[in-house]
Amino acid sequence: MLVEEAVAEALRDGGREAIRLYVSSCTERMAPLFVGLRAGEPGREADLDFYAESVRDLWYVDRPLSDAAERVRLLERFPELQPDEEGITDVAGTYAFFAVLCLRYALLAHGSGSADDAVSCGHAALTAMGMLDQNAAGASLHAEEQQLQSLSLSGDASDLWDASVTAGRERFRAVLGRLPR
After folding, report:
1. Domains of the chain and CATH, by start
2. Fewest beta carbons within 10 Å, which of 46, 74, 115, 161?
3. In this model, does residue 89 exceed pLDDT 60?
4. How confident is the model at residue 138, as a pLDDT?
């Protein structure tokens, strides 16, 4: 379930722009799991807008987000990251949590250039996809996530964005299939 060692090493050696491209693509793939699963929830409109704007802004890989730390503080107020005695027990809550966690690490990495934060971002995506594979018959989303994480280090942002958007939609459909009717 972990980020492949070759990917982690490439992030440590690749510099800030490589890290930013990696975390932006991971977050793009996870975004539908937050935006789609939380859309229509009363009182979450501002959270949805904030999430979508942050994912969009992460794609500006040529410069760090000047307000990354402030965005992390705002994100940490999201219900998904608030401790709860019962923990997260529902399907939608579980995948929305991983999407928010992925964005949190992406914002940290984008602002700091930390390869460790980038690896944590990748771990969040891989963990969610591993869980989804276990719960959706015939799914191979974990393997796809590993492949896309490796691709993100090739530096071609346009193909990566398209692949990430498509993968995000597929994940959302897979999670929808797990929701109680």
Report:
1. 5-176 (1.20.1590.10)
2. 46
3. yes
4. 80
pTM score, whole prediction: 0.94
**∠29-49-161 over CA atoms, to 5°?**
25
End-to-end CA distance of the chain: 29
Within 8 A by CB and 6+ apart from 122, the residues are 3, 7, 22, 23, 26, 149
Residue, of 20 and 135, whose pLDDT is higher: 20
Contacts of range 112-115, beta carbons closer than 8 Å, 24 or more positions apart = 112/64, 112/68, 113/15, 113/16, 113/19, 113/20, 113/64, 114/19, 115/8, 115/11, 115/12, 115/19
Which one, of 91, 85, 162, lies nearest residue 128 by Cα? Answer: 91
34: Cβ–Cβ under 8 A, 6 or more apart, which residues?
A: 48, 51, 80, 96, 99, 100, 103
Tell me the residue type at 63. R
